[in-house]
Amino acid sequence: AQSVTQLDSQVPVFEEAPVELRCNYSSSVSVYLFWYVQYPNQGLQLLLKYLSGSTLVESINGFEAEFNKSQTSFHLRKPSVHISDTAEYFCAVSDKGTYKYIFGTGTRLKVLA
Amino acid sequence: GAGVSQSPRYKVAKRGQDVALRCDPISGHVSLFWYQQALGQGPEFLTYFQNEAQLDKSGLPSDRFFAERPEGSVSTLKIQRTQQEDSAVYLCASSPRWQPNEKLFFGSGTQLSVL
Question: In this complex, do B42 and A106 lie within 8 Å of one another by their Cβ atoms?
Fold first, then answer.
């Protein structure tokens, strides 16, 4: 069965520093990959997704993630974080042809002034 | 409203009590999902509806859990004889079409505490 691993439960980082949030999934069968973000007291929101094509996908607020099939990874990066990026980030995967999303346990990003 | 609405926001139940959690998806959304998120964990799939049809209930943890969406819009998740292990945030999500790669729109969840 598909599973998702987010090894870092919390990541503190200073404002304007780069950050990488790691995500690995278990199966190399054709998959769709997602990052969702949950700001305090809000529902999860889609940040970006990989469906096919270019392995590098970007969000409108400066995050990017790269699909690496050989390493079964989909790490999220941002070159310079802002205080407003403080949130919990969830990686999710779904096998192509299914509607069931498997989520990781989340990484809490705390941006420090 | 424009988003997925869930009520109540918080629910405290005594062990053994029945509870009903409501989800109002975005109008016109075909797909509706329920997820359970325990403390410190990611959301775990419970069940999926396409319109009024419940196509997958494989994630429901026991026969005490029941979900319905009788008219293809509002959905209710019912938990009978609640147990302490049922304490979690219950998330509802909807999407406009039935496509495996669809973006999910999540509600803010119902936090259930069973005492």
Answer: yes
Q: What is the pLDDT of residue B23?
A: 98
CATH 2.60.40.10 fits A4-112, yes or no: yes
The total of structural domains in chain B comes to 1
Residue A51 banded pLDDT, cuts 50, 70, 90: confident
Q: Pick the closest to residue B52 from B33, B30, B36, B20 (CA basis).
A: B30
Candidate from B41, B102, B108 with C-beta closest to A105? B41
Question: What are the residue ranges in chain B where pLDDT is below 50?
Answer: none
- Can you give the residue ranges of every domain in chain A? 4-112
Residues of B in contact with A32 (CB under 8 A): 100-101
| Interface contact B91, partner A, CB < 8 A | yes
pLDDT of residue B86: 97
B14: domain range? 5-114
What Å distances lie between residue B31 and A2, B22, B34, B42, CA to CA?
22, 16, 10, 21
